[in-house]
Amino acid sequence: MARLANARRNVRDRLKNCSIKTAFLLYAAAGILVALALSFVSMWLLSTLALSTLDEDPYSYTGTFVYDRDRNELVPAESLSWYEMSAFDAAESMEAAPEGSDVVLLYIESARYADSKPIDLDDPPTSLEDGSVLGIAISRDGTTEANEPLLFSDIAAYDAQARSERAGAQTADALAQTLPDNADGSKPVVSNVGYYVPYPGDPLPYRTIADIAIASVPVIFVICLALAGRRFYRNRLQRPIETMDDAARRIAADDLDFTVDPQRPDELGRLCSQFETMRSELAASKRTLWRAAENRRQVNAAFAHDLRTPLTVMRGQAQMIQKLSDVPAVQKAAQAIERHAVRLGRYAESMSSIDSLETAELTPAPMDVATWFNHMSDDFRSMAAERDVQIDATSEGLPARIAVDAQALSNVADNLVANALRHARNAVEVSCTWQDNALTFTVTDDGPGFSQAATAHALEPFWRDKAELAAAPATRSEGHLGLGLYICRLLCEKHRGNLIIGNSPNGGARVTARLLAPAA
Known about the structure:
The protein is α+β, with helices and mostly antiparallel strands and 520 residues long. It contains 14 helices and 17 strands.
């Protein structure tokens, strides 16, 4: 018993840990076997129920018959074989068929068909309709076919007339005398006239139950296979799929503080293990990046903090030199020192601000975007007037209110317009549109446009075009740190949008900021 129990346990463990392909075949085979068994049971039960609706066997009064004149009955008959000799051979052996006459075909009363019953023409069965009996006609080539339907009352007269008109009447009488008696002591009926009673059709209850029995087979198979598939999914697929789905959602949400259980040693289990490997690698990479970013922030903060005091001293000393010295060269040198100290201070502040922007979370809130754009347009015109540049601000399709981080949107607009004014020769165009829950802010200038290098690198932090620096006047570039477009790109991406740079058909630069801003 212990050995048998161990064998059963081993088989169960093998089935539990088999491959998904093998498990699928096993579940499918089990479903098919159960469906076959249930189909046999269903067919047997329904066939039994169908037969119980019949008063008698529907085949009892169908087939070939011959007329018994003594009892006025149609008795079951056969037309070809009797004691392994056909009726025609029997007739030939008696040499009773006239030479040159039609082929003789005899119908002989038969007891071979136990289910067949005689039809009493004086009291016919209720299941037979009057006029359902067909006389069998014989052609000259020996073939037979059903003749016109006969009424029960007309069969005796029809039989007498047909027997006299067809060849073989005397042969039938002679053959009947040579055959052994029936169980009741009478001679079998032999005639050259046969009758055919077609199957009357199944009664409605019987036919309905039979149709249900036939239809139940595919239904049982579908249900059994569906249940087998459902059980296969729940036992072999559901938990690994749910585990991987939950892992994928948590990884997408940047939550890596969990583990992925392999569930079982099959294909999906190995896939779960791969998910766990990916999660652990991502977690390690994230920790490395976080440490690197944290180290960078600490270095930037320390750099900005340590640089701020000496730069302040340098600016103060440069200003003092300018006041105390009357030598033009010394004053010019002091001014240069002050100017570059200011620029170094801006660099230090920019590094701190970049760190804060990268870690900051935006908070969209309802805002009247049309009013915002009108106020910003006034500010843009004031900025343009200082540089003797004409600005054209237009808007289209703006809803009453949108959900957006107003500070981020203003920061993007200020940076893009300031960048365009710095490069524009005479005019800047600003447009603000809203469509499909997205706000698009486009700034176009008539300046030299982006160079090939700028198109590839302008969105990187602290990047500046060397050719631009060489060609632009010092007064137009001393405040440019290479952070404006990078900040705009960062804010757009945090707003689930993007920043696109390029050149307009007229040659000037065109920058388009797109931010997700649903109507509020």
